[in-house]
Amino acid sequence: MKLTCLIDSAARPHSAFETEPGLAFLIDSAHGSVLFDTGLTGRVLLHNLGLAGRTPEDIAAVALSHAHRDHSGGLADLLERRPDLPVYAHPDLLRERFSRREGAMRSAGLPPETARVLRRSDLRLSEQPQQVLPGVWTSGAIEDRPEPEGRSAHHYLRQGEEWVADPYRDDMALIVECAQGLVLICGCCHAGIMNTLRHVERQFGRRPAAVVGGMHLVGADAAQLRYVIGALDHMGAPMLYPNHCTGEAAYMELAFAFGERVGPFPAGAVLEF
Predict the structure, then answer these.
(1) How confident is the model over 204-243, as pLDDT tens digits?
(2) Is the dihedral of CA 202, 216, 262, 32 positive or negative?
């Protein structure tokens, strides 16, 4: 199994990969290629996909971690080229999301064009884990959340006439089986990294051997980081390849705690399992 970071806010040095504040991964398995999230724009997605030696015609399926635009913005351009692509996600995907910025509410979920295209696509929504390809599953809904979640104070939903904090019910991860065990690929981990890890262990009967992607620790204070590091150590310290919303301070603390078991994963980087 080969995993390529297609989109992140950082790229490999001297790389032609373009960056943007979004996230997308390409998973190449023996059974085909899966795209997990689609970044902020179709232009960057298609450009970086080409640099990875792939075209939209090579993709077997798409899975979305959640509805936020920095993870779903490139989807409409992809589906324009491949309207037959199955898209796997949580049933809450199509619900409108908002972000409060400078006192005003702005749309932060699926772009309108993406929502329109999705409604006539092969959209496969489920709260249960779904097999995307052999050895590749969605996590299903992460509902048990006793540990801290990856929340942002400015994210909202509209509920009637009220604005309510986004519960991130649509937040899911991707699980890939390889020779070394399970690889957990996270989009933003709004459900919380420890909640996500424990959900995977319950659903799949094993702890992940590696964790890749956004861990949403960018706003975590020192006490929360110490707790997460202790919990990860108790679980056997999987290999960690954080990016996106993990945050530089959290990355440094993880690297200090776990040494060579932690590595960066910017756009253009490749992991082989």
Answers:
(1) 999 999 999 999 999 899 999 999 999 999 988 899 999 9
(2) positive
3-state secondary structure 75-131: HHHHHHHCCCCEEEECHHHHCCCEEEECCEEEECCCCHHHHHHHHCCEEEECCCCCE
pLDDT tens digits for range 57-74:
999 999 999 999 999 999
φ and ψ of 138, to 5 deg: -80, 155
Distances (CA, A) of 203 to 168, 169, 214: 19, 17, 21
pTM of the model: 0.96
Please tell me the distance from the alpha carbon of residue 121 to that of residue 115, in angstroms, as a whole number: 10
For the stretch 67-84, what's the b/e string if a residue is b when 16 or more beta carbons lie within 10 angstroms of its beta carbon? bbbbbbbbbbbbbeebee
Q: What are 155's two structure tokens?
A: 């994210």
